[in-house]
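pasting for the record
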Amino acid sequence: MSVADRRARFRSLHAAENLFVMPNPWDVGSARLLASRGFDALATTSAGLAWALGKPDQSVSRDELIAHVADLAAATPLPLNVDSERCYPDDPGGVSETVALLAEAGASGFSVEDYDPLADQIDDVAAAAERVAIAVEAAHELPDPLVVTARAENHIRGVDDLDDTIARLTAYRDAGADVVYAPGLADLAGIEAVVEAVGVPVNVLVLPGGPTVAELGSVGVRRVSTGGSLARSAYGALLEAARPLLSDPTAAYAPGGPTSDELEAALAAGA
């Protein structure tokens, strides 16, 4: 499937009435494994990528992100959405250049968020909306437009204010965002309030103990993603599997998991 076809497919998924699940791989292998399971689209995770590079989240350079996007976009035929944090406004060319680079790397969509890690604070809503508008202009002027997701980071940054979150998402919608997203929202009534207020497709982060995918679909959520949770689970399994080696090098370790043949078959199927 060509990049143009994948972008058209991604836009059509958002235009449909049904919710779709978009899990977040962190490298080529995890992307192919997830693709083999029949998902409609994939998304990068900033945390998962950072961990794969041996870095903390929020410290990946733009060059590192673009290389990662190119690798994942080439790894499967699925549309790829990109967690591009604030779209690197302080790098050469700013947000517009970041969008151009993402498009060249094969992305079908990307997100722009309103948390500044250097200042450790949520951006002023007007400045954040202006950044969304710049991203939208760059993404929508392409021959095959990218889907722009605008994120309000309140609920994963200690700001438990649904009214402010809705006001921010509405401002980002008015700036042209195709999709809005407030990671960390876990109350179904609050999520429904967001869906009703914004009038554009809403992405929700699936959380342990939070609403089920079916429940999210019942209140009009269009897209769900997993963020860094799959990567965190995989790294947790690695640490747990290696634990016996510290106390008894002869002990059985790395129990369970698929066989090598099963993994290789799944990787081939996801390519």
